[in-house]
């Protein structure tokens, strides 16, 4: 009995920094409950360090799997700890009410010094259903009052050019990362304003329709720091859209000359007839992800015109073997280290030749067994040995899960 009493006393006498570490791993509700255990734990509950990083979860319980943050706790955080918040994210479900609640909270953060802000919707439309004026005014509160924002993720939101100008006016010296794909109220001029003024920008994620020769040249000027990541979503904004603009090779060259180690990541969600403007001349893309079917012709262009390619993922192609295209990619894309193939076809001999030419530099090789077509030289049973030999490690094709 005496031992248990001492153990209880030890829990109450734990140093503040130990209790703080424990609290940082608790949900907000559990953290609040733990604060009532004893006076020392309650003191830790109000230490500013505990409130620098926080995620608000907002949802409608009847339609969401998210565990919503209790409104009373939200008000307590805003009242007592708004000035301590530095790394803040809002995770909302698809309901407009949840997004409106997030905007209401943003509007109250007038005494904050936020460095990282993320608005995350687990499903569309969410923020896009909020009145544009309400969303922009709420976001502007943070942009004006923080003055030290370094990372912002505001995908699928009604953010617009004027609000970006407010962001730049108040945070141009600190902004390093801006992710804003699928923001239809932002124009190329708005992105260009960010690129011109935020000289510390290191990572930019946007839709292809916002990409321009002017933007790449702005990112390539002497006053701009070295860009580390440029992420581009290539998505049809309108059903049936088949016209995409082209980017000049000279503009791409200027960017790479200025930022020689920049990763250029492109995510494609197009139909085959929409690919025509892409990769007709050399493009310094490093990572390519095709979420829908892509033609043999397009993969052939990649082998010819993407010498900096590091990673390639093709979700689907059809029923035409890609042997020649893969071998060309192996020969010309000397930096390729990762490849994944989904609903495609490659002969076993062609695949072995591809791996042989890439050699041990392929650190990631994900191929479904159904992709491989047995031929006179190799069967499915033999191919893992041949591929493993050229990779220098044990390898097996991925198996389709059975349920």
TrEMBL record:
It comes from the Eukaryota. Pfam families: F-box-like. Transmembrane segments: none annotated. Residues 8-54 form the F-box domain. This is FBXL3 protein. It comes from Polyodon spathula.
